[in-house]
Amino acid sequence: MNLLLTSNRLSPVQFRLSQVLRILAAIILFQSLFYKFGAHPDSVALFSILDLEPWGRIGLGTIELLVVALLIIPKTQLIGSFLGIGIMSGAILTHLFVIGIVFREDGGRLFSLALLCWSCCLINFLLFYKLFRPH
Question: Name one GO cellular component term (predicted).
């Protein structure tokens, strides 16, 4: 189904909101790739705590890169939002139950970014899901 054609069923405000949300989510996910692919000490420490270093860090970075591409392309933003919800749910749960909200004295910044990205993906998904669900 062509999302560019069906997006006309959203109000102009909903459509602009969707654009802002998916771009913001893509930016958050993209900026984290520098830490994951660059083997930043904080990223290595986090994935070492989870016993997923290095393959978990590199694998998750690759999946996040795919989600960024899916979010940016209008025709695939619904899939990108769905995957973004899943990835960020994992990040949020990991913060809550394993590493804590504050990691390495970041003041909860990483956790806050995960919540923001999750919220952006969820709202965008809900805006567009109604256009594709079976009637």
Answer: membrane
